[in-house]
Write a structure and sequence with these properties.
Strand order of the largest sheet: 1-9-6-4-2-3
CATH architecture of the largest domain: Up-down Bundle
Number of helices: 14
CATH superfamily of the largest domain: Dehydroquinate synthase-like - alpha domain
Structural class: alpha/beta
CATH topology of the largest domain: Dehydroquinate synthase-like, alpha domain
Order of helices and strands: EHEHEHEHEEEEEHHHHHHHHHH
CATH class of the largest domain: Mainly Alpha
Bound molecules: nicotinamide-adenine-dinucleotide, zinc ion
Amino acid sequence: MAFRNFKMVGFVIYGRGSFNQLDEILAPQRKEGKPMIFLVDHFFEGKPLVNRIPLRGNDKVIFADVTHEPKTTYVDKLANSLKEEFGTVSGIIGIGGGSTMDLAKAVSLMMNNPGSSADYQGWDLVKYPGVYKAGIPTLSGTGAEVSRTTVLTGPTRKLGMNSDFTPFDQIVLDPELIKDAPVNQRFYTGMDCYIHCIESLEGTYLNEFSKSYGEKALQLCREVFVNKDNWDEECDDKLMMASYAGGMSIAYSQVGVAHAVSYGLSYLLGTKHGIGNCIVMNHLEEYYPAGVKEFKYMVEKNKIEIPTGICKGLSDEDFDKMINVSLGMKPLWENALGKDWEKVMTREKLRGLFEKL
Ligand code: NAD
Ligand code: ZN
């Protein structure tokens, strides 16, 4: 058996107001005449946070359009225009939710790798390290701040650029930055973390490493979504650490049924990751009975609407597409259901599940 030897994030700073140290953090990374590029979630356009970005010299702020989850075409466009304008850059700083952080990772890699980002969707295909990259989350839950992947929708598939070059060199975890997240979005992205924990802790790949982080992340999710009646600063602090720990948990295990099915929805219908996971989790009693029960309690307690009936009226061909994408996520199914998963999760059974969503 070969154990995974995984690359982690280089530097981590945590705390309220830690964003104010960004200028000094970036100073040693600056290269003469080469700008820092701040890729900022378009939500922050015209907001006070933009004025706090430590711009120097020919630094540039680019607002990332995250209306849709990141596509390889968008990554290529951003990287190519930066290459044209500057040759190379000192670094790419992603400020935003999982989508913006993934874009920043991918653009950093594409500054130094030839071709299209679609060529590198898969495992360990990236050839050269990217330029310096930092991630600054403004939503908590995806774990994109710690992961070795960047999830991209390409011409033929939705798959990450998984590699040892993918993790950030630096992350800035400042819970003040998530305080304005809308209640629904905060819940959907927060549930991504909760679901990571359930899938990791209930999976066959579980080990003490993943368990240590997964249990802590789960506890923090419960403290904010189950035990708290009113959201406060402490909740933002906790959820940010839950996301980090949840990400660390799956780094050494794997996600499971909710993610495998949600990827199918996202590929065909463009359903976003957080809400897609929630739509699926709502129907997974058979696989995660205790987790789903608690999930439903949290939905109710936090007064969140989970869409239903999203697969109504789809054609056989549509269902086939979703089933193909979903069953393609082999490690997820193996983690969830064991080595003989193909006998358990047949196409018919999966179709039945999609029909319920
Ligand atoms: P997101 O980044 O897609 O953002 C969702 C919405 O929230 C956007 O409209 C955005 O503008 C807005 N937003 C962001 N921060 C805000 C704030 N502070 N206040 C108000 N609005 C804000 O959402 P997400 O759930 O964080 O990320 C989902 C993405 O992350 C997907 O693309 C998914 O594929 C990816 N993902 C990556 C990994 C990984 O390991 N790389 C893991 C899980 C998910
Ligand atoms: Zn996820």
